[in-house]
Amino acid sequence: MTPISVQPVIMAGGSGTRLWPLSRAQHPKQFLVLQGNQSLFQQAVRRLASLDAPDIAVAAPCIVGNEEHRFLVLDQLRELALPPATVLLEPMGRNTAPAMTLAALQAQEGGHDPVLVVTAADHAYTDESAFTAALQRAVRAAADGAVVTLGIDPTGPETGFGYLRCIGGTGAELTVAQFVEKPDLATAQRYLAEGGYFWNSGNFVVRASVWLAALQRFRPDILDATRAAWTGRSVDASFVRPDRAAFAAIPSESVDYAVMERCPESPEFEIRMVPMNAGWSDLGAWDAVWEVSPKDSAGNASHGDSLVSDSRNTLVHATSRLVGVVGLDNVIVVETPDAVLVADRSRSQDVKAIVGRLQGAGRTEHTLHRQVHRPWGWYDSIDSGARFQVKRIMVKPGASLSLQMHHHRAEHWIVVSGTAEVTNGDQVILLSENQSTYIPLGTTHRLANPGKVPLEIIEVQSGSYLGEDDIVRFEDTYGRAL
Asked: Mapping DSSP to helix (H, G, I), strand (E, B) and coil, where does residue 133 land?
């Protein structure tokens, strides 16, 4: 028997504003390590690779993500040492229906028609074997032409999730009669009392051709616009970029609104639901992180260097220093090098209001961490004052910064570890540990790592203006604007 061909699709867009200050626009929650030693994105990739079975053949994943996160995606994929993935880059957000359509069009290249297994990059599961078993059942149903979603047995009257109303079928596979939007509390309580309602997990399993046919039936405008963007795509090494102007014209719509909610009313498409009791959480806010975290006997969960005393049902997440808490009840405390959040655990959904105020004030703490990741490595702004700034910089082996110049600042570089190749005007020199150099204002320069271990330097900037926009690029390996 020929195995069912499966194309894993991981939706890696989104900003995760309710997990601020750990989640930022340039480093959102799917790329964070919230439990274990892998990011949520890496866990999603690894979970889908485990779907392989004698009757199921799993291809390398297809990642649909944001242009701004492309190097985070590549770096985290490399750490997994899995077969090369296809990375589809959206130039701007257009919600999940266009993203899934891009993946379906990619999957059909070469005349193939695999089963798409579409999952979010930022969800968590405590029982991965149950997750795998449920998805394998869904794959087998989708191979026969069904549109399949996965539902979660509700554990309470949750108002933050959509619901599936199911009828008939067996215990392992039900027919979806209705997709229901997020209810108010009284309605959610009624759903639990009536039975037959499941939380919508946002996982979808469907053949690429069936998805495109359903979109043609219900939202041909989205399909036509996405096809136009796909036709004009460009390929750059590991990245596939749909045409920017055509992509901007695609209507923004979710998978649920565009197709799923309409399928139960149409005899053309059979929509089924496979129950999945795998300890699922969408980690939509800090309260959900507390829910899935290991806790002490008083219900406290802690991460990093923290001391918790005489407190109950509290989450402490420390990233850069010791955090001590005393006498707290139902509180969230999250510390990063440049921001601290303290919130009532029951109000954790409201953290997005803080992000909105940061945006309105023109601040950057909602966008960037103090440590900023770049395709060549990262920099950490460790101190600053009038006319000076100090950065710690790491350059990956074999990587280099752009050939550049600054109008308003000079720079001093001190090598802490590794070997630096420094272009300083007309000179190219090698520096090793404890050696240093000076880059005068207005001088063309470049920092590169020719070695096999990470290069770390301390950079001291001095001048009248120290903003990141004081940069003129002459050459850049990573396709950034010159």
From this structure: helix
What are the extents of the domains in the chain? 4-281, 295-360, 371-475
Contact between 54 and 3 (Cβ < 8 Å): yes
Is the pLDDT at 182 greater than 90? The verdict is: no
Residues 321 and 323: their CA atoms lie apart, in Å, by 6
Count of residues making up the chain:
482
Q: What is the pLDDT of residues 241-264, one digit of tens each?
A: 999 999 999 999 999 889 888 888
Q: Which residues contact 441 (CB under 8 A, 6 or more apart)?
A: 406, 407, 408, 409, 410, 463
Residue 463 identity: G
The CATH class for the domain spanning 371-475 reads mainly beta
**Residue 303 identity (one-letter amino acid):** H
Tokens (6 digits) for 213: 């046919």
Q: What are the pLDDT digits (tens) for 49-94?
A: 999 999 999 999 999 999 889 888 988 998 888 878 899 999 998 9
What token pair was written down for 71? 């190097």
d(CA 134, CA 309): 41
Residue 236, strand partner residues: 239
The domain 4-281: what is its CATH number? 3.90.550.10
Tell me, what's the pLDDT at 457? 98
Inform me whether the pLDDT recorded for 171 exceeds 80. Answer: no
User: For residue 7, which of 73, 105, 89, 151 has the smallest C-alpha distance?
Assistant: 105
Task: Please report the pLDDT score of residue 368 as a whole number.
Answer: 87
- Tell me: cis bond preceding 154? Omega within 30 of 0 counts: no
How far is it, in rounded angstroms, from Cα 182 to Cα 441?
57
Q: How far apart are CA 106 and CA 86, in angstroms?
A: 9
Alpha-carbon distances of 301 from 240, 294, 317, 342, 469, rounded to whole Å:
41, 6, 8, 15, 40
Three-state secondary structure along 344-393?
EHHHHHHHHHHHHHHHHCCCCCCCCCCEEEECCEEEEEEEEECCEEEEEE
Q: Which of 45, 49, 74, 69 is nearest to 59 (CA)?
A: 49
> What letter does residue 257 receive in the DSSP assignment?
I
Task: Kindly report the number of other CB atoms within 10 A of residue 399's CB atom.
Answer: 19
Which tokens belong to 442? Answer: 């207005």
| CA 183 – CA 191 distance, rounded (Å) | 9
d(CA 151, CA 189) in angstroms, rounded, equals 17
Cα 328 to Cα 343: distance, rounded to the nearest angstrom: 11
Q: How far apart are CA 172 and CA 187, in angstroms?
A: 26
470 burial (CB, 10 Å; 0-12 / 13-18 / 19+) is middle
Q: In 3D, which of 6, 28, 30 has the Cα closest to residue 17?
A: 28
Structure tokens at 176: 């979806």
